[in-house]
Amino acid sequence: MAIAVLVRRFVVRELTDRFAGSVSGAMWALLQPLLQLAITAFVFVHVFKARVPGDSTIGYVPFLALALWPWVAFSEAVLRSTTKIVDNAALIGKVALPREVLILASVGASFAVHTVGFIAVVLVLAVTRQGIHLEGLVPSLLLFVPLAGLALGIALICASIQVFVRDLVLALGQLLPLMMFAAPVYYDREQLPEQYRRFLDFNPFTFYAESFRALLLDHGTIGVRSSIVAVLLSVVALVAGRWIFRRLDSHFEDFL
Amino acid sequence: MTDVLVQARGLGKAYPKVHRTSDRMRALGRLLFTGKDGDRVAVLRDVKLDIRRGESLALIGENGAGKSTLLKLITGVLTPSTGTVEVKGEIGALLELGAGFHPEYSGRDNIAMSAALHGLSGEELQRRMPEIIAFADIGHYIDEPVKHYSSGMVVRLGFAVVAALKPDLLVTDEVLAVGDESFQKKCVQWMKEYLAAGGTLILVSHSMYHVQKLCRHACWLRDGAIEMYGDVFDVTQAYLAYHERKCAPVESASDRAAKGTLEFSILEVSLNGSLSDQPVSIEIGDTLVVRASVQSREGREPCLAIGIVRADGTPVYGVGTDMDGYTPQQMGANQFACEIEFNSVALLPGSYTVRVHPMDSEGVRVFDTVERGVIVRGASREFGMVRLAHQWNPIVTGAPLT
């Protein structure tokens, strides 16, 4: 498959771009999340004395880490992909290529890096006896599939609009943290005042934050209905993203 | 019937007028909701083109005529604004310098990416990599980042990749110009072999030498439309003649007004019997007869000078009646006529001007100038303006060089 070869090349290029010039190269992909985990653990546990309300069996570090890594994968995928078309203007102007490949590779690279980081973090948490249910690791990795689909759908929309309106990436830099704080990443659903809790369900990431914890920490449950909604949402995002991208694709050159 | 690789019908490209950010917003809205676009500037209009397998076509034209845009439409980098372009088979394209190389990556990495973009699989690339590197012939630079390359090296690399792919259709945009002499030769040689093996070529070049050497047909684009399409020699000659005319000094109109009061003035000039202002066209070796009639105010006998200049004003040949001792024929009280015949005109194909000047009886003062165009047709790769009589002599081996 020619497209598969192309995507692989772009993923490799994206990864080498990120770690280019670093002495240990790919080692950073593992080192980065673990260092980040250590810092988070120190600040939240020893400085803020944060803990999970109503559940003394699990620590705050695994509680946060399991939602934070998927979030970082998602938000980084969207943010980085948004400028991909504009960044590759020189290539697009000279070579005929299916432009979706650039977005696909960028999202793929973000998820590849952070899934590896996620596995490393989960393993470290398990080894340090933080109450991780390791049998939930493989099913939890499956959650990355609809999450990546959602990211890809949104990335296709953002990347094509970014060609026309260059403010988008700036706005996204503000909107994504807002989306994170509007999802139970740093806190638990139970901590919100009763009347606000139902609004959490309008945030697509709520499902993922809670599901990772349910699978790996046995904290809360995964609802069948919300799973179906999440998968459907990813499909809708992908279809809409592809439609918008295709519609604008042929005019990219005029506006780059 | 050979199959058509590229078929363009009513092909046009227009760019949107985008001056402010709000224009971009509006364009986005229009594209999303109506699928249409607003105000546009057309850079290519109504192009009809058929390129068959095995054909070699040159695209020529001034800067900004739309050559690169047409290539980009054919290769699919751009989407047509109007009309359609259908392409069969695999295209190898070298559009401008760089060919989409990433400056931070080494030549080797860029070859790999370029090959993937052309749809080459990993194993195939492994197999052809040595061949590509050998063709590019840039030594140890192959492992250096492309940003350290000279422009010639970038082209070498780009051409090497395309050459290794052996596409059905090769599209190159003025890439030969930056290569050095030996690489140009290599490329030209490669393209000739490629064409001989049934390849199809579209070449954009400002070098008429390369164009005539490699292409059978040419298409002259002017202001976004096809000005002329046909045999490469006809089109390049017309194109060069156009340039020569463009560079030639413009004749001032005030000369004409003063004509009636001149002591001697030209009444009419005919070339091969034609009185019209349209250029007369002849083949190399044809006969050219120039006939002129002169009005003499005082009825004195004039001298006539007749010259041929190239369209840009470079003199080729000039002769006067007085030099050859010819006397113009008196036609009436104040009218004289003369006729000169150039038999087997040895002018090389191109555009020329015949100038006729009446002079006083002593052949000293020039009073008037009338110009008529002559176009010499024919296929020739000879250089210069005239074909000098020549022959190639056989060398007798063993005979001493004397």
Shape of chain A: globular
Poorly predicted runs of chain A are none
Taking all Cα atoms into account, the compactness measure Rg of chain B is: 28 Å
Q: Could you report the average pLDDT of chain B, rounded to the nearest whole number?
A: 83
Number of helices of chain A: 12
Give the helix level of chain A as a range of percent.
over 70%
- Helical fraction of chain B equals 25-40%
- Report the CATH C-level class of the largest domain in chain B: Alpha Beta
Note down, in words, how this protein is organized.
The complex is a heterodimer of chains A (256) and B (402). With 256 residues, chain A is mainly α. Chain A has helices at residues 2-19, 27-47, 60-82, 84-87, 89-92, 100-127, 137-164, 168-181, 194-197, 204-217, 224-249, 252-255. In chain A, helix 3 runs antiparallel to helix 6. The model of chain A has no long low-confidence stretch (mean pLDDT 88). Chain B has 402 residues and is an alpha/beta fold. Chain B folds into 2 domains: 4-244, P-loop containing nucleotide triphosphate hydrolases (Rossmann fold, 3-Layer(aba) Sandwich); 251-377, Distorted Sandwich (Coagulation Factor XIII, Chain A, domain 1). Chain B has helices at 21-33, 67-75, 107-117, 122-136, 151-165, 181-196, 208-214, 232-247, 254-257, 321-324; strands at 4-16, 40-52, 56-61, 82-87, 91-94, 169-173, 200-204, 217-222, 225-231, 264-271, 280-283, 288-296, 303-310, 315-320, 329-330, 335-342, 350-359, 370-377. In chain B, strand 6 (169-173), helix 6 and strand 7 (200-204) form a beta-alpha-beta unit. In chain B, helix 3 (107-117) crosses helix 4 (122-136), helix 3 (107-117) packs across helix 5 and helix 4 packs across helix 5. The mean pLDDT of chain B is 83.
